[in-house]
Design goal:
five-stranded parallel β-sheet, Rossmann fold, 12 strands, 16% strand, 13 helices, alpha/beta
Length: 408
């Protein structure tokens, strides 16, 4: 009897000791990781809230609102998210300045959803040197998909290279003998689309494609559109940001250029691109899409879209729900929530990047059916698939199957 009693006391002592060790380990993780306490995790973001790409900066406003909704529900695993977002005005030097501030002054655990290829490019070296994960960045530049060079990074756009190949294959089927025009932003964003067409068309590229580049500091792309129209091209791919895509659609209409217009995903918003161009004159425009369309009645009974509309009513009343940038920001917020839940109580930077590269068949409720998030040690892209859709004048009409770079 005494031996049994002693064994019981010993078992309880060991259990208590193990619990204490576990608690101390958790405290150590929180103490060792900047921005993590028992009740809070600090996360940083950088967006073009102002400047030439301010229309896509709305993604950041939606992320902020979604984080507030998480905190109103009590946070995640007992912690609330302190999401600190700064405005870089689409300026690379400002992006670097804000990255330093987030890391050295605000002491965030990681960066989430930094938006813009120029800013991400400028800040990448610094953030890697400091060992700070940059999760779900909003850039499709193909260089960021190189895991060996960007081991602490994951991306949340289909790579511009993959997207470009999807469009090249679509045009080759739709207009097999035609000439194509590409109007592209003169940076990594635009150049990747041109490279994708070169890779797909190979020796035919110079005979089949005419290109024109523009700088984000230019007030208008009208003169470029005139020159491209004079080339005799039957299709126009606009690889840039919403302001310039809207100008290209409108100028093409003014010139009575009947080209099939294809927009890249960053310019696919109804509110940010098609409305400024003119909803009626945008009829026939084709884009590749990741997310559902909040204005399309086909999703009226979809639970994911019902939840999104309820979120908008509560946290972002009065916004233009037709602007897909808000929906994309909400989707990013869902991904942030998934990541932190998946991390459990280990919010070390090592585990943050490990979990960000361990998503398995994650089906986000606002993403097109059939498109799932899968990442690994070798694949750091949250999205590798799209569906094509055509603007009818009032809504997007989906057509075809889910596509990726290997699709025929």
């Amino acid at each position: 009897m005494e031996t049994a009693k002693e064994d019981g006391l010993l078992f309880r002592a060991l259990t208590t000791a193990c619990a204490l060790i576990a608690a101390l380990a958790t405290s150590a993780i929180a103490a060792d990781t900047p921005g993590v306490t028992a009740t809070e995790i600090k996360v940083g973001g950088i967006f073009p809230f102002s400047g030439p790409a301010s229309s896509i900066g709305l993604v950041g406003r939606s992320v902020l609102a979604y984080v507030q909704s998480i905190n109103d529900r009590g946070g995640i695993n007992g912690r609330k998210i302190n999401y600190i977002a700064y405005d870089d005005a689409y300026s690379p030097p400002k992006a670097v300045e804000h990255a330093r501030k987030l890391v050295e002054s605000d002491e965030v655990a990681f960066i989430f959803s930094q938006l813009g290829t120029p800013g991400n490019t400028a800040a990448a070296k610094y953030l890697r040197a400091r060992g700070v994960p940059t999760i779900a960045i909003v850039s499709g530049s193909s260089k960021f998909t190189d895991v060996s060079n960007f081991p602490l990074t994951t991306t949340s756009l289909v790579s511009f290279d993959t997207e470009g190949k999807i469009y090249a294959k679509f045009l080759a089927k739709t207009l097999p003998n035609a000439k194509y025009a590409i109007l592209y932003q003169n940076d990594d964003l635009g150049k990747d689309y041109v490279s994708a067409f070169k890779e797909f068309l190979k020796s035919d590229f110079d005979k089949r494609v005419v290109t024109a580049s523009y700088e984000v500091t230019e007030p208008t792309v009208d003169s470029h559109v005139v020159n491209l129209k004079n080339s005799g091209a039957s299709a126009l791919l606009v690889a840039g940001t919403p302001k310039f895509a809207a100008q290209a659609i409108r100028k093409s209409h003014e010139l009575n250029w009947k080209a099939l217009i294809v927009l890249n995903y960053p310019s696919s918003s109804v509110g940010a691109t098609l409305k400024p161009a003119g909803l009626d004159i945008s009829t026939g425009v084709v884009v590749g899409s990741i997310t559902k369309d909040a204005t399309d009645s086909i999703w009226d009974q979809d639970q994911g879209m019902k939840d999104y509309r309820a979120f908008v009513d509560k946290y972002m009343p009065g916004i233009d729900i037709a602007d897909n940038n808000y929906l994309f920001g909400y989707t990013q917020g869902k991904l942030l929530e998934q990541l932190i839940r998946q991390c459990g109580d280990d919010l070390s930077r090592e585990n943050i990047i490990k979990q960000a590269r361990s998503f398995k068949d994650v089906a986000l409720p606002t993403v097109q059916p059939g498109i799932k998030v899968n990442t690994s040690d070798k694949i750091n892209m949250n999205f590798t698939q799209m569906r094509l859709q055509r603007w009818t004048g009032t809504h997007w009409d989906l057509f075809g199957e889910v596509l990726d770079a290997a699709s025929e």
